[in-house]
Amino acid sequence: MNREFVEVSPEMTLAMSGAALDSAPLPPEPIALVFCADGNCPTLVFDLNPNIQALKREQRLMLVVQRSAFERVGGAEPGARCTHLPSALRAIVLAIHDTTLKGETRSVYRLGKAIELLCETIRLQSDGELVAVAGESTLSLADTRRVAAARRMIDERWGEKLTLDLIARACGLNRAKLTRGFRDMFNCTIAEALAERRLAQAKSMLLTTDKPVSSIGYENGYLNNASFARAFGRRFGVSPSDFRACQSAAA
Q: Bridge partners of 179?
């Protein structure tokens, strides 16, 4: 990891490594959002009362944000200090880490990604999608990590032919424990999470491509246009064709 920081604004600093904070301008009265994207259990830690010297030793990507600024843009007291890192946030963290851009272009890119990371974190927090690493679930910590891995598998491999058996085997849980644990942690079934991810992608494709509706449905796991139209209509209240027509008329 590059030992550097980006001053996003006087109210927020992106730190790529703890060592960078020795010379980094930090906002007053900060909180720290610490992102760990590696390992079997990627996490997000909210440090609401950070010790500055401890922050300087932190070796993971961090957003150090003035508390009032965090609250002003919609952030709130987290329900849990340590949560599983959703795939959407992990992808942003890895993009910040792994960019091959150089010089000023890299700094500008990371600045933009830092703002995206903060906004997406607040959105997921507002939507109740940040799941505590150790919550009130009856699952053990190891099993909560396995269920979280199942969610990442859905988020990242939704385009594949995923079945409950395949996901259970990949994550090391039996079907019953995965089914119960997934509902406990994410308040939906495996099938509902997979459908939501596929329909969200289909919605995006209807807006951004001119592919036929039937092709979009097929690419997102629906074997015929009728089943795609029913699922899309249940989720968004309008057929795929009408959705596209309405959006085109409004443009």
A: none
Q: Grade residue 251 by pLDDT with cuts at 50, 70 and 90.
A: low
Domain count, the chain: 3
Segment 45-65 mean pLDDT? 84
Q: How far is CA 162 from CA 155, 165, 169, 170, 191, in A?
A: 11, 8, 11, 11, 10
Identify whether residues 15 and 103 lie together within a single domain: yes
211 lies in the same domain as 122: no
Q: Which two tokens stand for residue 228?
A: 């795609």
CA atoms within 13 A of residue 70's CA, in its CB half-sphere: 27
Tell me: do 170 and 212 sit in the same domain: no
pTM listed for this prediction: 0.70
Q: How far apart are CA 27 and CA 67, in angstroms?
A: 9
Query: How is residue 250 annotated by DSSP?
Result: H
Which residue segment(s) compose the domain that 120 sits in? 5-126
pLDDT of residue 134: 60
Give the pLDDT confidence of 70-124 residue by residue, as tens digits. Answer: 999 999 988 778 888 988 899 999 999 999 999 999 999 999 999 999 999 999 9
Yes or no: say if 72 and 54 are a contact pair by the CB < 8 Å rule. no
CA distances from 163 to 11, 62, 159, 166, 167 (A): 45, 36, 12, 5, 6
Q: Do residue 244 and residue 214 come from a single domain?
A: yes
Taking the CA atoms of 130, 133, 136 and 142 in sequence, report the sign of the dihedral they define.
Answer: positive
